[in-house]
Amino acid sequence: MAIDFLEPVSSRSTIQDGVYRQLRHALMSGHFEPGQTLTIAVLAETFRTSHMPVREALRRLTAENALVVVASGSAKVPTVSLAGLNDLCLTRISLETLAVKLAAARSTAEDRRRFAALMLEHEDAAAERNLARMLAQNQEFHFAIYDSCGSAVVVQFIQTLWLRFGPYMRMLSNYIEPLLITGSYTPSSHHRHLVAAIEAGDARAAAKAVKGDIETTQDLLRRLCREEVGNSTPKRKKKR
After folding, report:
1. DSSP code of 150?
2. Per-residue pLDDT averaged across 212-232, rounded?
3. In the prediction, which pLDDT does 2 show?
4. By the 8 A CB rule, do 30 and 46 touch?
């Protein structure tokens, strides 16, 4: 199976770090299906490397709970569950509301202009029905704000949570894609509320906006998780 969103590793960075960074970004962006197996051989061929840097990258991602080791030494993307979704969203809300509160106080005028520009780029991607660009812009928008909060520790933990949220992002993108194609998908208004709150220096409103953004996604994913569990549950045979 070809993995066409990964590229051969650049010679400007170490091979091992290059493989790790690309896989980490792909997982965080929801490029892999929940439960998908990532084999060392296929990844090594995709990156045009030996097996060793791929094996080490998978080991690091497993240590971050982004992947699960399987018997062959390859790795698997975690499956989704209601309990896992609720746990991740609870923690995301705690940390991401903290980050935007800090950003409301610490971001510069230049930062705020960038937030507004990224918000519009995300909306443009949706209008163009470009799912890949829309997801990339969503991530860039959020982390531009989080990076301006002034706490490297908070940002690092948020990155880890988004990494573990990857399988749910894939489920979400699978749902959104057909809506985007037909033009029936409308981006959430929470981004606009978030930008306006930070521009006004209103930490409470900023926290409310990002909380609403996460909870809206969580509500949709709860339904999708229930459907996933329902479809995968073996049906009992009727007694005669």
Report:
1. S
2. 87
3. 55
4. no
